[in-house]
Amino acid sequence: MVMLVTHCIRMFVITGILRAGFCIHCYSCKYNSDDPGTFGCGSLNLDTTYLMECQPRYSFCSKVTRQVAGNKVIDRSCVKVLGASTCITTQNERLCLCHEDGCNRAASVKERNNTLNTSCLMVITLGLTHLLNL
Fold this sequence. Notes:
The structure is a single chain. The chain has 134 residues and is α+β, with helices and mostly antiparallel strands. The protein has helices at residues 2-20, 115-132; strands at residues 25-27, 29-32, 51-53, 60-68, 71-79, 86-89, 93-98. The strands form two sheets. A five-stranded antiparallel sheet has the order 2-5-4-7-6, with no helix packed on it. The chain has a two-stranded antiparallel ribbon with strand order 1-3. The chain is globular and about 40 Å long.
């Protein structure tokens, strides 16, 4: 148990060190189905010319899809958010957040599965609880 906790802690530290020197890359563009000049951003095969390095304080990519006056509008960008990857849908809008390079590219940003990180957090919590109870 202690070895598994140690391994998970090392993984988080190494990941943090590796990510600390690099900024996330997100697609950044706006699409409006009524504006032919923006059609590239609405493409299912989004061109990498829209991929940009975000400023260090921006740790997530976002994709907002909405209906405005009968037109489909998509906004992809870097955002400063604390939390986890998720998608939220309201009546006229869908907001998706993710934190991997280029993750806001797809026609539909899928929620990322952080099973390994969640498992490690559970192991660390259980391990620390076990150690404190000794």
